[in-house]
Amino acid sequence: MPDPLPLAGDTAKPDGPPARAPEAAFGLRFTLPLMLGTTLNPVNSSMIATGLAAIAADFHVGPGQAAGLVAVLYLCSAVMQPTMGKLATLYGPRRIFLTGVAILLVGGVIGGLAPAFGLLLLSRALIGVGSSACYPSAMALVRRRAERLATGVPSVVLGNFSIASQVVTVVGLPVGGVLAGVFGWRALFFVNVPLALITLGFAARQVEQDPPPRRSRGLTGILADVDLAGIVLFAACVVSLLIFLDDLERPAWPLAGLAAATAAALVLWERRAVSPLIDVRALARSGALRRTYLRQTTTGLGVYTAIYAITQWLEGSAGYGSSRVGVIMLPLSLVSMVLARVVAKRGWVRRPLTLGALAMAGGGLTMAAARHDAGIGLPLAMTVLFGCTNGLSNLANQTTLYVQTPADGIAVASGLFRTFAYIGAIFSSSLIGIAFGDRVTDTGFHHLGWVVVGLGAFTALVTALDRRVPISVAGRRGERASASQSPPATPHPTKEGPPVHLRILALLLTPLGMLLRRKRAGTEHSVRNAPELAAPRTFELTSPSFDHGGTIPLRHATMDLGPNLSPELRWAGLPEGTAQLLLVMEDIDVPTARPGLHLAALLPPDPAYVEEGALTPDNPRVRYLPDHRGRTGYQGPRPLPGHGVHRYGFHLFALDEVMVDDATDVDLQRLLPHVEGHVLAGAFLEGILRG
C-alpha cells in the first residue's frame, strides 16, 4: 500500500518567541518620535529657501554666499548620515538619536541668535549633523524591535517614515514662508527648538533603553572602534565629489581627482580597519546591496532633475506664476504619498521598483514632447508620473535595503542610502545648469527629458536583471507569523528571484493585462455551477495559509511571483460513506471564455488534510486529471500582470465511490458524467491574488 500523505503535525516547532503582527508591535507610542526625528532633516532643507533673501540683506552678503546655507546642510548630511549610523551601532541607536536631536536643538538656538553670518553657517552645520542621526538610528531601532518580536519586515512603518518626510517637504516651503513673513527669518532657526524638545520628550519616554555599550580600552580603543581615519577619508571623498558635481559647467578636475584618490585610500584603509565605518569587504560581496544604492542614486537623480527642471521651465519658459506652479506641482506629492501608503500596506517591492522606473521614463518622454504654449495638461501629467516614481521607488528601495542588510549593519547602510540620494540631488543641479545655460528654453527642457528617459530605462533594466530583489515582503511576514502555528513539513525552497526571462515577460504583458482588465470568465462555466457536481450538503475546507477571501501568500504562486508550493488544505465534516474526494482549483477571473483550471485531482478521504507542497505530479496518493495542456499537479496562481485581482476557488467534493483507479488519461470534463449522482457533499475555499 502506498505511503500516506505527510502529516502537518509531524515536525517540531521552531524555537523562538511567538510572532507578532507589525501593527501590534509598532504602535504610535513607539513610531511617533521616530517619525518626528526623521522629518527634521527634510523640513530644514526646504524651509530655509524662504529666508535666503532676507538673510543676505541683513548680513550684506551675496546670493551665492547665502545659498551656502543650503549647501552646508547637504554636505554635512551626506557625510554624517553613515557616520551617525556607525555611532548608533557602537553606542546604541536610542542614545545617538537623542544626542542628534540635542545637537539640532543647539544649532537652532545658535542660528536664531547669530550676530554674524559665520555663526549661521555653523548653525546649519550643527542642524545637518544632528538631524543626520535620526534616520539611521530610527531604522536601527525599528530593526531591533522587529528582530526581538519576530514581526518580519515592518513595511508599514518604513512607509510611514517615507510619507512623513514627503509631507514635511511639501509643507516646509509654505510654513517657512509664513514663519519668515510673520516673525522674520530667525524663526526658521528657532522653530527647531520646540520641534527638538517635542521629539526628545516623546523619544525619552516611549523608546526602550539601549543595552550598555561595549567598553573600549582607552582612547586608542575608542578611535579604533569609531574608525576616525575612515570617517575623515569618507568625508573628504564625499565633499570633494559633491562640490565637483555641483558645478559641471566649469568642472574643477582637481576635486574629481581628490575624490578618486580619497575613495581609493578609503577602500584600502577600510579593508584593514578593526571596526570599519563602511565594511567594503561585505559591500564587495553583496552585489544586491550595490545595485540598491545604484537604483537609489539614479532614481534620485532622475526625480530631482525633473522637479527642479519642471519648476524652472514653467516659470521661465511657459510663463506661469510661482503660485500656479505650486498648484501644478501639488499632484506630485499627493500621488507620491498615496502610492507609498499602498505599497507599504501591500508589502510590494519588485513591482513598485519596476513601475516607478517606467513612470520616470514616461515622465521624461512628456518632458521631451513638451512645449511652453501647449497648455496645463502636459505639466500635470509630468507631475503625476514623477509622483508615481517618487512614491513607488523610494519606499521599495528602502524596503530592499532593509531586507538585504544584516541587523548589525542597518544603521550604517541606511545612512549611506541617504548619502547616495544626496549625490543624485546635487548632480541634478549641474545637469539643469548645463541644459539651460543662461536661459530656460524648450530645447534645454527636451534635452533633460531625454536624460530622464535614459535614467528611467536604465533603472528598469537594473531592476529586471536583479534576481536578488524580493517580489514582496508580505509573504515573509506571513510565513513568519504562521511558523509557530503549523510549520510545514516540507522546507520552503529558497528562491533569490525568478529567471530574467520571466520578469521581462511579466513586464511586457502588463499593458495587455490593463487593456483586458474588464474581461473576466466569471462563474457561468465554473465547477461550482456544474450540474454534475451539485451537492446536497456542505462540509468544511480550510487552509492555514490564508482565510476564505484572503490573499494567497506568494509562496503558493508561480512563474515570477513564487516557487509554486501547493497550500496546505484541511477538511472536516465529511459525510458517512465518503470513498473518494475530487479537488478542483480554478481561476474565475482569467480573461478567457471559461475559468482557468489550475488543479484537478482525486484524493483519499483520510487523512483529513494534504500537506503544503504535497500536490506534486510524483505523489503516488494523488490521481491527477490533466488540464488542456496535459499538465498534472498543482499549477500555482499567476494573474495576468496588470489585470487586477483574481479569485481562485478551491472546490472539494465528497464522492460515494472511487471513480477511477488511474486517471492519467481522463480529464475533468470526461470525468464529470461519471461523477453525476455520486456527490455526497461539497466544500469551497476562495483566495485572491492581484495581477
Largest sheet: 6 strands, mixed
- The CATH C-level name of the largest domain is Mainly Alpha
Distance between the termini: 42 Å
- Whole-number total of structural domains: 3
Mean pLDDT figure: 84
Considering DSSP H and I runs of 4 or more, what fraction of the residues is helical? Answer: 55-70%
Name the beta content range: 5-15%
Tally of contiguous helical segments: 23
Shape: elongated
**Structural class, please?**
alpha+beta
Number of strand elements: 9
Order the strands across the largest sheet as they lie in space. Answer: 2-9-8-4-5-7
CATH architecture of the largest domain: Up-down Bundle
Can you tell me the residue ranges where pLDDT is under 50 for at least 5 consecutive residues?
Answer: 1-20, 475-496
Task: Name the CATH superfamily classification of the largest domain.
Answer: MFS general substrate transporter like domains
Radius of gyration: 29 Å
**CATH fold group of the largest domain:** Growth Hormone, Chain: A
